[in-house]
Design goal:
It is a single chain. Helix content is 34%, strand content 17%. By secondary structure, it is an alpha/beta fold. Strand 1, helix 1 and strand 2 (27-31) form a beta-alpha-beta unit. Helix 1 (11-24) runs parallel beside helix 2 (41-47) and helix 1 packs parallel to helix 5. The radius of gyration is 14 Å and the shape is globular. It binds S-adenosylmethionine. S-adenosylmethionine is lined by residues 79-81, 100-101, 103, 105-107, 120-121, 123, 129-130, 132, 135. Methylates the ribose at the nucleotide 34 wobble position in the two leucyl isoacceptors tRNA(Leu)(CmAA) and tRNA(Leu)(cmnm5UmAA). Catalyzes the methyl transfer from S-adenosyl-L-methionine to the 2'-OH of the wobble nucleotide. Its EC number is 2.1.1.207. Its main location: cytoplasm.
Length: 161
Amino acid sequence: MQIALFQPDIPQNTGTILRLCACLDVAAHIIEPAGFDASDRNFRRAGMDYLDHVRLKRHDSWSKFEEWRAEAACRLVLFTTRAAKSYLDFEYTASDVLLFGRETAGVTDAVVAAADARLVIPIKPPLRSLNVAVTAAMALGEALRQTGSGTAGSATQRDFW
Ligand SMILES: C[S@@+](CC[C@H](N)C(=O)[O-])C[C@H]1O[C@@H](n2cnc3c(N)ncnc32)[C@H](O)[C@@H]1O
């Protein structure tokens, strides 16, 4: 299991998600441009020393990420508030990449079109969305419950920080 963050722009959320990935031994991908850099104080504070333990790969753009994914032959599972299918009604595989959108803008239409599956965590109407780090925790909880260890799937190199 792996996760990817599309152009994240709130450093505390990314730090929290990378800490989660370190603890669950799930590889992470950041699709640039992010709204902050690796030296950001809030990012470092949220990720703490857990950042030293995460398997992380940075992709300069969406197209670079897609090149990597084609080679790795991983399905892309997009979490979006605009999906019709619940994340509980989906059969995950160990090599899936779970993708989460930018806090302020979600993902582009091209990203939606590229996804092999689009899933929602149902929430009470008319509320708009969950925090992205909470979404990632819930999504990983279900995906790992179904598939087992977070160490499954292809490893990535650590090349961001
Ligand atoms: C704060 S939301 C983005 C809201 C943005 N205005 C939009 O329209 O997508 C950030 C990301 O968290 C994830 N997310 C938040 N709530 C979700 C939900 N209920 N179901 C699935 N994904 C969710 C999605 O990946 C989303 O792109």
